[in-house]
Amino acid sequence: MCKTCGCEVTPGNAHLAYRPVPQHTTAVDVLGRLLAANDHAAEHNRAHFDDHGVLALNLMSAPGSGKTELIEATADALGRELRLGVLVGDLATDNDAQRIRTHGIPAVQITTGEACHLDAHMIHDALHQMALDGLDVLFIENVGNLVCPASFDLGQHRNVALLSFTEGDDKPAKYPVLFRSADLVLLTKSDLARHMEDFDAARAEGCLRALANAAPLHALSARRGINLHPWFDWVRGELAAVRARRRAAFHPGAHHHDHGEGLAR
Amino acid sequence: MHELSVCQALLGQVEAIAREHAARVERIRLRIGPLSGVDRGLLERAFTLARAGTVAETAELSITEAEVRVRCRDCGAESAASVNRLLCGGCGGWRTELAGGDELLLLSVELSEDERVATDAA
To answer: What three-state secondary structure class fits A194?
Structure first.
């Protein structure tokens, strides 16, 4: 068991159960995550996604790195092959949801007001407007913010972090919590790379590896349709993995022989 | 930033505990790691705002800071590290696992028994 999620009393914290407290005071040991309520809601969301065999992807980046553009390009390219849906988080406006809908896929806008991140409860509420039955992949476009979203589990299967060529190549070192959580890093706006001579993709990768993160990096341009195939293949692969886990859950032991469906006995 | 959200989640848990014991909250003990995404100073400040009007309104917040430590998957060594340099202190490799540093734990809640005594006597 791990030492950091509160699921175990360790020698390092066991003494807290026995420390002296002032008179007329009772100490209640909790040893639980501060964000336990959000974690619980996130697990509920994840179970929901798993039950429906829907791949849930959490897209995070600074504002303006190209999350919406990437979703639009993906809808155009994969919209006939896969059934896609989007939950978009923004502090204000429903501009992004409207943009996405023009590409023929359903999008629900979550307007957070003051909140600088999405949380599991917001996702849960938004799912009342998005039927998972009809979906293969759900993109969750988080609020543009490299700080806060990383701390809140939404119930997603995978995190995708976007970093554009117009930003600093050392961003993974500056925002370690978010980039540590990334399962895939996309270097976006690659069509502008030739104008951004200071951006060294190898340095960005080095910063990511220094976070002990083995996630792949792919440079692409959603707007110009450059090198999108590694991204599409990654999505297809992750969807296949979700479906394989679902089949394994319904058929424990991962048998591959026929269970006799349709055969007379 | 989001420290206020974290405070509200914290107070939700603390209030439930205090209600169960029908007591007032004296002290809340947390352990926070640098990779949790929560800033200690901002959390302390958010707490002084968020606790108003709750059973924890006079409670003190005690935060211990956790160290960033990694365990190497290649050589097995455990060593101290920094938030954006999670390399093995032994072999220098980057294939490590976090052994500490992303904690966001509510360790314990210390409750005053005074109110409970008053309740029993009522």
So the answer is: helix
